[in-house]
Write a structure and sequence with these properties.
Blueprint: H1 7-17, H2 20-40, H3 53-78, H4 83-87, H5 91-96, H6 101-122, H7 124-130, H8 138-165, H9 169-193, H10 198-207, H11 209-229, H12 244-249, H13 263-266, H14 281-290, H15 297-320, H16 325-339, H17 349-353, H18 357-361, H19 367-388, H20 391-398, H21 407-434, H22 438-453, H23 455-466, H24 470-479, H25 484-489, E1 494-495, E2 498-499, H26 506-532
Antiparallel strand pairs: 1-2
């Protein structure tokens, strides 16, 4: 029943592999990798086998891009494997079935990894096209795929563990990204560090990586099976009732007191008095009940992981190697990119899923109150969480470590982070307005934001690495105006005898400010109009 007669695996494969988005994803993935290789392919008709370093850079870029893409896509397939059962109100039926926990976990894991396996297999012909260029042997390609398969398997198990730990797919998805991204970046750094020692890299990948991934995956497997054997007390539809006071007392690590500062900034206590006449009921309901109705576990985990990772990054980038200050801002922006959409992407889709949107639209609450109540509640939580990571930047400005002459640049960093937080919230709310399911809204938010924020930076790195044509470089420079990462790296910074003034383009910073204002204004006008015409009410 584990493999051949696993009903969970069969059902998941049939439903996933027949979906249109699976074919579209496969086409987009292979087409993107093919365009990457085509754009970087040597212009000479005659291959120069005496200089294989160019081909080696091409293959390394191909594997680096594929590894990052697959790592980012793994949580989208596995993080909702169990939480989706809760949201579809079928979790109790699954637990009551005669299936063993091991069969359920294996079915969910294999079904989640099958689309990713298809993507990696379909990329093999593109890799084989690069082998005639030289510089990379067939054994190195096989080792790279072994490392990728082991990593993706571990990332899938981590996402499945988060899915068993949380009550909502959005919380599981964010926790998965917070755990997987550091591991993925560590894998990239180790791979690049061993680039000059090919034999050592082969030994490490074949001997250490599989054992480490299997060991950690086995521990997570056992914990997920234990949760399925002894599930928590469940109510109707497999939904667990959360007592916030009991959860806070039993919390390990961070303790949130919702009536104390600064905790009440992002998690205010439940209201015990009447609502003021001029207050926005949507905003009050979202902040005090809706966002934290499933407890504060995800919130506590996000704060602890982000602060734990921020400490070494802060020490190196802000104080030890001060010229790397933009990299710490990039870490803050990446945190907001991951966390920001979570609190806004299900603002309206959750109303549709609970069949309460019709009732909401028939009240005396104006569309403007609905829009701003939903927007400001999600923006408040994400911006406060992001501001926790900006305190080291503020302290660095006060301390005599060399940032005093760069106060305008540091102010620009704060402005970029604030605008980015607003942009992520508006984008997620717009996706929640258009889509019917929270999972679709959240994934679309991540896709749009990654395209706007990360794609121009990746294109710029590609152009600089392969010395593309000057007209392509100009187009990439214009496209960087949509990325806050590019804007942060194009602010002047002067420290002692080091400066980056010659290498920056401040027009990218000003272009980002203008683009963000135009982009946010268009989305707000579109959402206001959709609210007025009662767009996509619940069925």
């Amino acid at each position: 029943m584990l493999f051949r007669e696993n009903p969970v695996l069969q059902r998941e494969l049939i439903s996933n592999l027949r979906m249109t988005r699976g074919f579209l994803l496969l086409f987009a993935y292979v087409a993107g990798l093919g365009m990457l290789v085509y754009a970087a392919w040597p212009a000479n008709q005659t291959l120069d086998l005496a200089r294989p370093e160019e081909a080696q850079k091409l293959v390394n870029l191909f594997f680096f891009g594929q590894y990052i893409l697959v790592s980012l896509m793994t949580p989208s397939f596995a993080a909702g494997a169990i939480t989706g059962e809760r949201e579809r109100e079928s979790y109790e039926m699954l637990l009551a079935s005669p299936l063993r926990p091991g069969s359920i976990v294996l079915g969910k894991l294999l079904a989640s990894l099958t689309p990713l396996a298809e993507l990696m297999i379909c990329s093999l012909p593109i890799v084989m096209l690069c082998l005639p260029l030289g510089g990379v042997s067939l054994y190195e390609v096989l080792v790279a795929y072994v490392a990728m398969i082991c990593s993706v398997g571990l990332f899938g198990m981590i996402s499945l563990w988060c899915s068993s730990f949380f009550q909502r797919t959005s919380a599981s998805l964010v926790a998965s990204y917070m755990l997987i991204l550091p591991l993925a970046m560590a894998g990239v750094l180790v791979w690049r560090a061993l680039q000059q020692a090919a034999e050592l890299r082969i030994i490490v990948v074949l001997a250490i990586v599989p054992i480490a991934c299997l060991s950690v995956g086995a521990l997570l497997w056992a914990d997920v099976c234990r949760r399925l054997i002894k599930p928590p007390d469940l109510g109707s539809g497999g939904k667990q009732a959360i007592d916030l006071e009991t959860e806070a007392k039993e919390a390990v690590g961070l303790y949130i007191e919702r009536d104390q500062f600064p905790d009440k900034l992002f998690a205010p206590p439940k209201r015990t008095t009447f609502l003021d006449d001029d207050a926005n009921p949507i905003y009050d309901k979202e902040m005090r009940s809706e966002i934290f109705s499933q407890g504060t576990l995800m919130l506590r985990l996000v704060i602890q992981i982000s602060m734990g990772l921020a400490l070494p990054v802060m020490a190196v980038c802000l104080f030890m190697q001060r010229q790397l200050a933009p990299w710490y801002i990039a870490y803050v922006l990446l945190f907001n990119l991951l966390v920001g959409p979570v609190f806004s992407a299900d603002s309206l889709t959750s109303e549709r899923e609970r069949s309460t949107l019709d009732l909401l639209l028939t009240t005396l609450i104006t569309p403007w109150q609905m829009l701003w109540g939903k927007l400001l509640s999600g923006l408040r939580v994400s911006s406060v969480l992001t501001s926790f990571l900006l305190w080291p930047v503020f302290l660095a400005c006060l301390m005599p470590v060399g940032y005093w002459p760069n106060l305008l640049t540091m102010g620009g960093y704060f402005l970029i982070v604030g605008i980015t937080a607003t942009t992520t919230a508006i984008t997620a709310l717009f996706c929640s307005t258009v889509f019917k399911k929270s999972s679709s809204s959240l994934m679309c938010s991540y896709l749009v934001l990654a395209t706007l924020f990360l794609a121009p930076v990746a294109a710029n790195v590609f152009v600089q690495t392969f010395a593309a044509a000057s007209n392509a470089a100009g187009v990439v420079a214009v496209a960087q105006a949509t990325s806050p990462f590019a804007a942060a790296f194009n602010l002047p910074l002067t420290l002692d005898e080091w400066t980056n003034v010659e290498r920056i383009n401040t027009n990218i910073f000003w272009g980002y400010l203008g683009f963000s204002a135009l982009y946010g204004g268009v989305l707000l006008l579109a959402m206001t109009q959709l609210f007025k015409v009662r767009w996509r009410v619940s069925e």
